[in-house]
Design brief:
isomerase activity; Jelly Rolls; Phosphohexomutase; 7 helices; 6-stranded antiparallel beta sheet
């Protein structure tokens, strides 16, 4: 059985801050009005993605990697991360503000949770007027000042808020205090981890009158108190790959295609496409498949080249 470009059943997550944009903008199908996340490609425990297309439909990603480790992951990924699938891909719809939060680095996450840390990036797919993100401190601070502002509920006064528009891109290293603001639809690429420390949740309460759990005792040693520059500056190029992020955990390029583009693998690793705009045909000698905005496609490492035909914008992610 030959491998081919793989798609997966989305794993939907109901969130107190979620909405319906994943349905309205990305053609996702679900019930309810507060779906905050669509996990597109995951091997997080109890949330392992299941193949939705072709001969391997019904197998989950871990089962597929067990059958074809080198062919799926590639030498580069196995060399760095073993047989674990190292990344988690999501679309997020923030109808309301997410909590102000932080993620630990690999060392802390391993020590406390036997997990990877959570380096991540955001690509803004849609943003309402004046929608904003919270990303890092306005200037260098320290643990004492941070705790004082937290206690006084003035934390936002020392954090950097930035209004955003479609196409804005941010790279968040572990330790960066952050929050996605109301009205933002995001494609998120991150390490395979579900470790989040909430610092402040806007004093929200659920239907039972309870607030969500905060993790400030854990967070203080995970925070980077330096001023950080998280926004990525780039210029789009038609039918050319533009690098957005190149870090130890993933490389992300933006690929704007108009017409026909000959795609060739650059690394001995799997590649993932997240379609952020338009539609396209993926065409090779042994495969033809049509994809559209909101689709996430895993290209196994063994597949080396394709023709991409259409009017589309893709995030192209590899190791």
């Amino acid at each position: 059985m030959k491998l081919y470009p793989l798609t997966f059943e989305p794993i939907f997550k109901e969130r107190i801050w979620g909405g319906t944009k994943l349905k309205e903008h990305l053609n996702k199908s679900f019930d309810g009005n507060s779906i905050g996340e669509s996990w597109e490609l995951s091997t997080v425990s109890n949330d392992v993605s299941v193949v939705s297309n072709g001969e391997f439909a019904g197998l989950n990603l871990n089962e597929l990697i067990e059958k074809f480790p080198n062919e799926i992951l590639g030498e580069k990924s196995i060399e760095k991360f073993g047989l674990d699938f190292p990344l988690l891909f999501k679309f997020l719809d923030a109808k309301e503000d997410l909590s102000i939060q932080v993620h630990p680095n690999d060392e802390l996450a391993k020590q406390r949770h036997n997990s990877f840390g959570k380096t991540e990036m955001w690509y803004v797919m849609q943003a309402d007027t004046n929608a904003r993100l919270v990303v890092g401190f306005k200037s260098k601070t320290n643990k004492q000042d941070y705790l004082s502002h937290l206690a006084d509920k003035t934390l936002l006064t020392i954090l950097n808020e930035t209004t955003v528009k479609k196409g804005d891109t941010f790279f968040l290293e572990t330790g960066t205090v952050h929050a996605i603001g109301a009205g933002v639809l995001i494609a998120e690429i991150q390490q395979t981890s579900d470790i989040t420390y909430r610092l402040y949740d806007w004093d929200r309460i659920d239907s039972n009158g309870a607030g969500r759990e905060l993790h400030n005792d854990l967070a203080v040693d995970a925070i980077n108190y330096e001023e950080t520059n998280t926004k990525i500056q780039y210029n789009k190029k038609t039918n050319d790959s533009v690098n957005l992020v190149d870090c130890p955990y993933f490389i992300t390029n933006l690929l704007d295609i108009s017409g026909t583009y000959q795609w060739k693998k650059k690394k001995e690793s799997f590649t993932v496409f997240m379609c952020t705009e338009g539609s396209f045909l993926l065409n090779s000698e042994n495969f033809k498949g049509n994809f559209k905005k909101g689709d996430t496609i895993l290209i196994p490492a063994v597949l080396k080249e394709f023709e991409i035909i259409g009017e589309t914008s893709l995030l192209e992610i590899t190791i």
